Amino acid sequence: MQYSSYSGKEILIQTAKWFTDGSKCQTESFSVLSLTDTLMPISSQIDALLENLKKVVETEGTPVFMRFFLSDSANQEAILRKRLDVDCPVSIIGQAPLNGTKIAAMVWCRQAAKLCRIDDKMWQVTERGIDEYWFTGGLSDKEGSYNQTVALLDELSAGLAANGLTLESDCMRTWLFVQNIDVNYKGVVDGRNTVFDRHGLTSDTHFIASTGIEGRTESHDNKVMLDAVAVSGPGVKARYLYGASHLNRTSEYGVRFERGTAVEYPDRKHVYISGTASIDNKGKILHEGDIVRQSERMIENVEVLLSEAGCGFADVGSIIIYLRDTADYSVVKNIFDKRLPDCPRVIVQASVCRPGWLVEMECIAITRS
Length: 369
Known about the structure:
By secondary structure, the chain is α+β, with helices and mostly antiparallel strands. It has helices spanning 42-60, 73-83, 144-161, 167-170, 181-198, 291-308, 329-339, and strands at residues 2-8, 11-19, 26-35, 62-70, 90-94, 103-110, 114-117, 122-127, 130-138, 171-178, 209-214, 224-232, 237-241, 260-264, 269-276, 316-323, 345-349, 359-367. The chain is globular. The relative contact order is 0.13.
């Protein structure tokens, strides 16, 4: 991975580029765009970010996935959508950037990808004879977090089936954004367990890498939003990551997701690390109330998972860091500035699924097979 950054008027752009073996030909990149002027109104912040996002795409190639982070989705999402003019999978979530601005973005680009829109939530991304199916911005009008989770996972499963894939064999990663997670997370867990039971996803088979985290949409009725990616093609294999020296199986405390998944292609691996916090291999929260030590253990846990996948932090293209308490921002930023100064990252406000966890992170890495 090769890192670069650009700091211009009103914007900071951090980019990680991946190159093919023995070649100077760039194939993939991640970029995180963060505004730096906290005094601009939301419309000006959106315009500045989208103007720079367009330049990133012109340089880096076809966008295969974008996520936007908003400080107040109820008032800002409609403004963003009105100005947004992109043809790719897009996720918009209410998770306030903690540098004091109103919007940030992450974009994953590839030089050789071809996109085809299947419906309002699903896209097909084709590259090197391999297909990815991105399901983004999934919302349900059912009542409550349990019913919404079941409906969304069923919709995802039906969409995959229509394209010859299955939830249990081909879905590699999900993100579940939960409004008021301290109240609604149990419904999400129970709903996911219900669907997984139907699909034979158990501790004896495997689960799906996932992040379940606080996140809002523009409507207070949407308790859950779902993003997901599935992969199918010749030579594609999924290897699940456990980090058994440092973490336990999530099913031991009643939830079901894998700690990470390495998606192996003929020439490279995409490594998805799930939302990871300060936990030990008995499922116990470590260093309660201590943001510094929780951050250090969290990073150690992720490092173990990456190592199991055959890579390390030098291969990480993007990091999202979730904080429960905004007062912890400066401390956590300082830790990451020292430990991983170049990797594209964004720190947002989003409570983790257990109140005792003060911080959580997820990341995506790319390495050679």
